[in-house]
Amino acid sequence: MSPDPRPVLLLTRPPADSQRFAALLPEWQAVISPILRIVAVEHDAALLREAPGLVFTSAHAVASAGPGRGRLAICVGGHTGSVARQAGFAVREGNGFAESLLPLIKATPVPLVHPHGRHLAKILPVPGVVVYDQQAQPLTAEAQGLLAGANPMVVPLFSPRSARLVAAAARAARSPMTIVAISEAARAAWDGPFAEQAVAATPDIEAMAAAIRRLPLAEQ
User: Fold this and answer.
1) What secondary structure letter does DSSP report for 219?
2) Any idea what the CATH number is for the domain that residue 212 is in?
3) 3-class state of residue 165 by DSSP
4) Residue 92 domain-assigned?
């Protein structure tokens, strides 16, 4: 039997994030195989509940801070900002890059605390608290089968760490692979095989979906 020529999306974010992204590209077949597992860790919950202001670089950290009660939340981008608003925070948003938070932090008169994951891409100039771990896990048997096959694949990369982990898992891949990165840092972290590569115009899932739609593979 000849391989199906249609490209397949390999989505390696945690399940809810991957499902949210797949919904933006309903015309694509998607295989979800998280390379990371988000696991809560013990932390000083009272410190976060009582903090006058929070910095969120991931939506995964919002719940750790308790109810917003109108407190300030400086958020890295739109999705994290939306989750923080739903929790009752007064939100100021960056442009999706952690660097965009620096002027917002500098202009904020209240003390800030940054709840974040154990693996942090950028250290910000505010006190930080680790509230979850991003634990690596192997790809599913279905994903490994796709990598070993001949179908073309598109692999979205949402962080440098996940790019390194997926690249390591894909070193022996036979599938023609296109990588689409959310940032230059994520693209640079990939050291696995690829046939084509692209970088989203802005660091958000809408731009990632748009970049995938512009691929020559999308016309198949």
Assistant:
1) G
2) 3.40.50
3) helix
4) yes
Strand 53-56: give its sheet, edge to edge: 36-40, 128-136, 112-117, 53-56, 72-75, 90-93
CA-closest candidate to residue 7, choices 166, 194, 175: 175
Beta bridge partners of 122: none
Residue 54 has pLDDT above 60, yes or no: yes
Task: Please tell me the number of Cα atoms within 13 Å of 119 on its side-chain side.
Answer: 13
In a domain, 1, yes or no: no
Long-range contacts of 163-166 (CB under 8 A, 24+ apart): 163/187, 163/189, 163/190, 164/189, 164/190, 164/191, 165/12, 165/35, 165/36, 165/136, 166/10, 166/12, 166/35, 166/139, 166/190, 166/192
Range of lowest pLDDT (140-144, 157-161, 168-172): 168-172
Tokens read off for 103 = 């002027």
107 in a structural domain: yes
Residue 94: inside a domain? yes
Q: In 10 A of CB 92, how many CB atoms? A: 18
Q: What is the pLDDT of residues 102-136, one digit of tens each?
A: 999 999 999 999 999 999 988 999 999 999 999 99
Give the chain's domain count.
2
